[in-house]
Amino acid sequence: MTTPRNAAVRGAMPSGTNTGDLTSVDIHGSAWDPAATAMTFLNEITMRYPDAISFAAGRPTERWFDLHDITRHVETYCAYLRSEVGLDEEQVRRVVMQYGRTKGIIHDLVARQLKVDEQIAVDPSALVITVGFQEGVLLVLRALASTPHDALLVVSPSYVGVTGAARLVDMPVLAVNSGTGGIDLADLRRQHELAVAQGLRPRALYIVPDFANPTGITLDVALRRQLLALATELDILVIEDNPYGLLGRHRLPTLKALDEDRRVIYIGSYAKTIHAGARVGFVIADQRIATGNGTVILADALASLKSVVTVNTSPIAQAVVGGKLIDSGFNLVRASRRETDLYERNRDIVLAGLTRQFGRSPTDIAWTTPAGGFFVAVSVPFHVTDELLELSARDFGVLWTPMRYFYTVGGGEKEIRLSYSSLTPETAAEGIRRLTSFVARHMT
Length: 444
Known about the structure:
Strand order of the largest sheet: 2-8-7-6-5-3-4
Distance between the termini: 66 Å
Oligomer: single chain
Largest sheet: 7 strands, mixed
Number of strands: 15
Shape: globular
């Protein structure tokens, strides 16, 4: 007779019970991800102190939200289907309101926008339209984690969504130091060597080269080229995440634009430039896959996985995004100028406030100076705890994010992340005044 798994645990339950209740060991460990627990705590603090000014949420501004834009963009997309694609009314309704192509229905429009904004020339067939970034990275990691030995290298600190996705597919995560320039290439080589020595096969490196979350750091062009050369030498792919790249005046070529041998898998999102609520992103996956029946591309494999995850990305949401792309002339850099100006003004207010309060302080406090995006990372001379965060909200009326949430294997205990994107210039100024008072109090 086979003994049921966790029989000892179940045997501890009160006699006479026969329910479908579970114990924690019956659930996949990713459900108890510490980063997710930390974010839940942050949300609770935000709700508990609604009057606190929040530098915590990395969300786009709501200043110019207009519900009429939704219908206008859908109408633009439908007009495009009629005039340029040549569909009749019944076909237009079916495209927008029925289950659709797994790879997406706006792939051709996304390809045009990438050419205009990023100088990336991509065959639309190599695009998969996803439910935001999060589905995109989950599909990519699920495809790459083909054996228990396949591992993911992640620049640390990093966005928690990618490490969480890796845990969902049981993919080991190896932290690579970001250094002062965005990635420490010597540490990348070292971590790769250590992984191989442990019997692991590093498949890819995840990185945000432009205005990274949470540091705000941007890789310079020379470092981008060196990274691609090292990736080729180590025979790993590079997963480039670019949610903020269009939101800055001093923009550099993406890794994908510099990619000459299909080394880069590029994941984009329209959450920061069009509508976060649409939940539309995309993956460029043009890597070739040799099969017994010939050659396919990675985008085809991702589409196959997507067909059993979400089936397809909402065609209605895609229509909203497609219409916006058309209305903007496929130039989201220009269409986002108003928002970019606000973000840069808020950033300058934050940096000026930090400089005014701490510019002459010893080297025990420092901060990054992002060229764009949403985030500033601040180093402080005291340990940042959840208790301090609640005290900051309660006594000083200001919220922020502990940076330790973003480290893979420890770190960030004396750092905080500030997100200035969802504030007005007025609340940014008042918020930084409150924040510097909080920090100054705890420096003494």
